[in-house]
Amino acid sequence: MAAxxxxxxxxxxxxxIDQGTSSTRFLVFNAKTAELLSHHQVEINQSFPKEGWxxxxxxEILQSVYECMERTCEKLTQLNVDISNIKAIGxxxxxxxxxxxxxxxxxxxxxxxxxxxxxxxSTVERLINKTPGRNKNHxxxxxxxxxxxxxxxxxxxxxxxxxxxxxxxxxxxxAMFGTVDSWLIWCLTGGKxxxxxxxxxxxxxxxMLFNIHTLDWDPELCKYFDIPMEILPKVxxxxxxxxxxxxxxxxxxGCLSGIPISGCLGDQSAALVGQMCxxxxxxxxxxxxxxxxxRNTGAKPVxxxxxxxxxxxxxxxxxxxxxxxxEGSVAIAGAVVRWLKDNLGIIQTSTELEKLAASVGTSYGxxxxxxxxxxxxxxxxxxxxxIICGLTQFTNKSHLAFAALEAxxxxxxxxxxxxxxxxxxxxxxLQVDGGMxxxxxxxxxxxxxxxxPVVKPSMPETTALGAAMAAGAAEGVxxxxxxxxxxxxxxxxxxxxxxxxxxxxxxxxxWKKAVQRAMNWETTEPISNGNGETSIFSSVPLGFYILGSMxxxxxxxxxxxxx
Length: 563
Known about the structure:
By secondary structure, the chain is of the alpha+beta class. The protein has helices spanning 58-78, 121-129, 140-143, 152-162, 164-171, 180-188, 201-204, 219-225, 267-274, 334-342, 352-358, 397-423, 440-450, 462-472, 501-518, 540-561, and strands spanning 13-19, 23-30, 36-43, 55-56, 86-93, 98-102, 112-113, 175-179, 198-200, 210-211, 216-217, 234-236, 239-244, 260-266, 283-287, 291-298, 309-314, 323-330, 367-369, 387-389, 430-433, 454-457, 492-495. The protein is globular and about 60 Å long.
């Protein structure tokens, strides 16, 4: 962290809360130079109560924000930085993750259902089956999204159908629904004592309840999912004052009380802003828990013909136009590293993966499709499951580590190809950000597999930077200029492709073959034996095999007894 010789020259500061799937951060930037002054990070626990279920504790999420704010304020004090120079706070968050809480008690009524969660697969299949032509894109003309487990509406529907406390709170008009941004803003502006219940257009556009053309909740969509509109937060722009911070005065971070929360963007939109992709055609790819490629399409929504999502990129002011993006979403990127660490014990820390993979420099024909939550873009195939293929006796954990990194790159190649087909104008380089970009081997692999340069900014915290920019530029704050001539010059590092295109295409073709092997693995409605239990005889070939084996055993025993 930089040492500051002349504190008075810092000028206005802007902070950002970055609440991601695996961690929470609080970061403070200089509004004039975009320099990161200080930050603190806390990891978030995920729970997996059943196969395919992914949950997080709303109290832990909120507490992690308070802890990050407190520790960062302590660090700023040690640096002799005047905390009162913080003029605004922005919020950026994991999108789609769904919460319901009681507005009278302020308590969450169930754990947050994380975007990766698959419990709603049967609900999704039922919804698709009742659409004309069993079309998963039935709502796309309004939402820009396919009907999928990924988005918030089906998670909210599940909570209302399966959690008694939620159903009762909805009936008694005490329930509030929100994504993580809504929960945090409501709590930080007073909670049950006057907290502001709002969201922004980027987060709302990921619910399947929001009309991306009218930029508001859609009564027909709410009726389709049977969700009462009164539990929804008010939709605001991504850059305006939503409310003022309320924090206990006895804390070091208590001096943040009264500071406006004036920026709100879903994490991928925030990264697009932080990468300064304000021109039509500019794109960025973020490597976090998942992997998300967004391309700015300007003031009109563009519908994809190749499996991408149409989403609201940002709306930087109440009176400013909305800007749209095409998005390619990959469920598992950084999450595969966590899986190798926590589930298989192949590595002890995330940084070990690069060393392990670099020690062999090849997957030796091993391909890893990490479809732990089905496959997202461009397939939208919830029945897919993870697969590792091409194994030989020579394959070891280093090859598997290399294959895991390649999987992230191949998935990015798939969504980049789809984006190039939709736009008709191929990207000539890829701007990248996110935690995984610190892995230099991954960045080189990405350039090799895409056959175009990969450009990484020297300041990797572009998601938080985007939220800070939106907050600082808000009307009534106006300490951060978003005019092109005022934006800070970004220093970056470029990774050029180092293998020939034929080698790249060969490896990519093998990957596509592996993806096909992962498809149609899981079905959600096995045949029951009448007691709600799946019968071994629900599979006819398996039933004959087991029955035949039993008869052979009985026959053998009979013959043995007569010898």
